[in-house]
C-alpha cells in the first residue's frame, strides 16, 4: 500500500451526532459554524493542503447544484488515469469525490468569501461509472481529474494517487455523512475534529459517518472556543500509512 495524506475529518455535529439538516442553518448553531470556519483556516495555516467533500456537499457549497453541459464533448480521453499538468499543482486543493461526474463546475478555482476555501484548485475524483464525456468537459474548464475505481470510488487508491501527484501530506475531510462513512470504512480517517452545536437534529438527518463500522479513537484535546466545545481525536493505528500530520 502506498503513502496517502493524513486525513482529518472536520465537522460540525449536533448533540446527537448528526451532521446534516436544518440544525446547521438554525441560529442556535451560528457560533459553532463560525468556530468551524475559524478552525478550517487554522488547519490550512498549519499545513493542511485543502479539503475533500462528497458530490452532494460540493454542489450545495460551491456550484448550486448546476449540472455539467456535456453536449459537444467527446469521450476519447476517459481512459487517462490522471489529467493534471504541473500548472495545476497550486498546493491548495478542493477535492471532489464525484463518482458519476455530476458536478457542474464553472471554474477550476473555488471562489468563496472565506479565505479558507477561496482560490483552492478543484480536483475531480471519478469512477468508471462517470459519463465518458465528462473528462472532456473538465479539460475545457481546466480542471484536473483522475479515475479511481470502476463503479464506485476506491477511497484508498484515490488518496494514494492524490499523494503521488500533489504531495499533499494532510487533507481535511469535510463531509457529508456518506463520504465520511466511506472513508471510515476504508480505514482512512486518521483524526476527528468535531465542533459541537447545541442542538438535537431531526430524526431523518444523517450521522457523522453513514454506514459506520466499529472504530475507536483516542481523545487528544477537548477545548471550548467561546461557548463551543471542540473535540479532537486521533486513530493511532492508522498513522503508519500516512504521509504527515499537522504540528
Ligand atoms: N456538519 C458539517 O460540518 C457538514 C459539512 C459538510 C456537509 N454537511 C452536510 O452534508 C450534507 C450532504 O451529505 P450527504 O451525506 O448527503 O452527501 P455527501 O457525503 O456530501 O455526498 C455523497 C455523494 O458522494 C458521492 N461519492 C463519492 N465517493 C463515493 C463513494 N466512495 N461511495 C459512495 N458515494 C460516493 C456519491 O455521489 P453520487 O450520488 O453522484 O454517486 C454520494 O451520493 C449537506 O446537506 C451538508 O449540509 C455538513
Q: Would you give an account of this structure?
A:
The structure is a single chain. With 247 residues, the protein is an alpha/beta fold. The protein has five helices and ten strands; from the N terminus they run βαβαβββαβαβαβββ. It has a ten-stranded mixed sheet with strand order 3-6-5-4-2-7-1-8-10-9. The longest helix is centred in the first third of the chain and has 16 residues. The relative contact order is 0.26. The site of NADP nicotinamide-adenine-dinucleotide phosphate has 27 residues, from strand 1, strand 2, helix 2 and helix 5.
Question: What layout of secondary structure does this protein have?
Answer:
Layout: E1 6-13, H1 30-45, E2 50-54, H2 55-63, E3 82-83, E4 93-97, E5 121-126, H3 134-141, E6 145-147, H4 155-166, E7 170-173, H5 177-185, E8 191-196, E9 218-225, E10 228-234
Parallel strand pairs: 1-7, 1-8, 2-4, 2-7, 4-5, 5-6
Antiparallel strand pairs: 3-6, 8-10, 9-10
The structure holds NADP nicotinamide-adenine-dinucleotide phosphate (NAP).
The site of NADP nicotinamide-adenine-dinucleotide phosphate has 27 residues, from strand 1, strand 2, helix 2 and helix 5.
Amino acid at each position: 500500500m502506498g503513502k496517502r495524506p493524513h486525513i482529518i475529518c472536520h465537522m460540525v455535529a449536533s448533540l446527537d451526532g448528526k451532521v446534516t439538516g436544518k440544525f446547521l442553518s438554525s441560529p442556535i448553531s451560528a457560533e459553532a459554524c463560525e468556530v468551524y470556519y475559524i478552525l478550517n483556516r487554522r488547519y490550512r495555516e498549519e499545513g493542511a493542503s485543502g479539503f475533500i467533500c462528497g458530490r452532494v456537499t460540493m454542489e450545495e457549497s460551491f456550484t448550486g447544484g448546476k449540472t455539467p453541459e456535456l453536449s459537444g464533448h467527446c469521450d476519447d480521453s476517459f481512459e487517462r488515469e490522471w489529467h493534471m499538468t504541473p500548472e495545476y499543482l497550486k498546493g491548495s486543493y478542493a477535492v471532489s469525490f464525484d463518482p458519476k461526474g455530476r458536478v457542474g463546475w464553472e471554474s477550476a478555482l473555488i471562489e468563496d468569501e472565506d479565505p479558507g476555501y477561496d482560490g483552492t484548485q478543484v480536483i475531480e475524483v471519478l469512477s468508471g461509472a462517470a459519463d465518458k464525456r465528462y473528462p472532456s468537459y473538465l479539460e475545457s474548464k481546466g480542471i484536473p481529474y483522475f479515475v479511481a475505481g470502476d463503479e464506485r470510488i476506491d477511497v484508498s487508491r484515490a488518496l494514494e494517487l492524490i499523494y503521488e501527484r500533489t504531495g499533499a501530506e494532510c487533507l481535511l475531510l469535510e463531509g457529508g455523512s456518506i463520504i465520511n462513512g466511506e472513508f471510515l470504512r476504508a480505514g482512512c480517517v486518521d483524526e476527528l475534529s468535531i465542533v459541537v452545536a447545541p442542538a438535537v437534529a431531526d430524526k431523518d438527518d444523517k450521522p457523522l459517518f453513514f454506514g459506520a463500522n466499529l472504530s475507536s479513537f483516542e481523545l487528544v484535546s477537548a477545548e471550548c472556543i467561546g461557548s463551543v466545545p471542540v473535540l479532537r481525536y486521533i486513530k493511532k493505528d492508522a498513522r503508519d500509512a500516512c504521509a504527515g500530520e499537522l504540528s
